[in-house]
Amino acid sequence: MVWLRALVAPITGIVSSIVSAKKRKDELNAAIHEKQLEGVQAMDAAEANLKLEKQKALAGSWKDEYVTLVVTIPAILAFAGEWGAKVVTDGFTALGTTPEWYQYLLIAVITAAAGIPLTAKAVGKIKTVSQQK
Q1: Residues 34, 39, 45, 51, Cα dihedral to 10°
Q2: Residue 41: how many CA atoms within 13 Å on its side-chain side?
Q3: CA distance 120 to 118
Q4: H or E stretch covering 129
Q5: How far apart are CA 23 and CA 19, in angstroms?
Q6: 94 to each of 3, 42, 73, how far by Cα in Å?
Q7: Measured between alpha carbons, how far is residue 58 from residues 64, 71, 87, 106, 113 in Å?
Q8: Domain boundaries, the chain
Q9: Residue 24 has pLDDT above 80, yes or no
Q10: CB within 8 Å of 76: residues ≥ 6 apart
Q11: Which residue has the higher pLDDT, 84 or 63?
C-alpha cells in the first residue's frame, strides 16, 4: 500500500498543479473580460454624455428650422404655379453654375446643421454623381 501512495502522490501533485493553473487562467480571463466590459460601459457613458451635450447646445438653435426651410422652399415653390416653378428651375440652374467647391461646402453646411456627419465616402459619392452629369 505504501508503494501505491508513492506512485499516486506525484500524479496527484501534477493533476493538482494543472487544475490550479487552469483555475488561475480562468480567473485571469474573467478579470480581463470584466475590465473590457467596464471600458465599453465607460465609452458608452462618454458617448451618451457627448450626445446629450450636443442636444443641449442645439436646444436654442435655429439650425433645424433653417435647414427645413432651405430644403422645403424649392418643393413648395415648385407647386406655386408657373412663377414658382420658374424660380426653382432658375435657382437650381444658377446653383449648378457655382464652383464645385461651393456646392460641396453648401452640402456640408446643410448636413452638419441637420446633425448628419458628412464622411469622406459621402463626399466621394457626391463627386461621382456630379461628374456623371
Answers
A1: -150
A2: 6
A3: 7
A4: helix 120-132
A5: 6
A6: 102, 49, 16
A7: 9, 19, 32, 20, 10
A8: 1-60, 63-132
A9: yes
A10: 84
A11: 84
